[in-house]
Every structure is written in C-alpha cells, then in structure tokens.
C-alpha cells in the first residue's frame, strides 16, 4: 500500500489482521509513513475467529470511531471494497476529505 500519489486506497473498506490474530474491518482513513501507522475509521473487531492463538478474543458488537494501528504489529491488510464516490463528486486528488 503506497502512501505516495495521494494514497489511492483512502476511503476503501479494509480488513486488517494484527499479530495478535485479531481481525478488524474499517474504512482506511490515513497512512502515516513517518510514524508507520495505519488509521481505520468506523472499525469493528471480529476477534480471533478461528485463527490459532494462545489468547482467543471474541468479536465485539461495538463500532469504534477510529483505531490507529502500529504498522509493525499488522500481520495482514487487504482491501475489501474500493472507495465509494462521495456525494456524487468526481475522483479528484485535490479532495482530502468530505463530510
């Protein structure tokens, strides 16, 4: 996932698995290459599911406004859905965020 060129994955639905084997899903909000962090918004934790771990974690019903993940503790990250167009606006690299 490249941070250059405006980070084309911003706004995409992301599935992330931490080194603790916990899966999270949320909307990619930012990638900070200097701090090596990834921020997801509207995040749901699915727990460890069927992944092998010494400490199983159940899923949570709560939706977190955002979670900042340390890049070195991310085991896997995949794009589940591409970003959705915002309010009918065209894809414009000049737009950073739409509320």
TrEMBL record:
Keywords: Ribonucleoprotein, Translation regulation. InterPro entries: Lsm14-like_N, LSM_dom_sf, Sm. One of its GO terms (biological process) is regulation of translation. GO terms for molecular function: mRNA binding. Residues 1-83 form the Sm domain. GO terms for cellular component: ribonucleoprotein complex. Gene3D superfamilies: 2.30.30.100. It comes from the Eukaryota. This is Sm domain-containing protein. It comes from Xiphophorus couchianus.
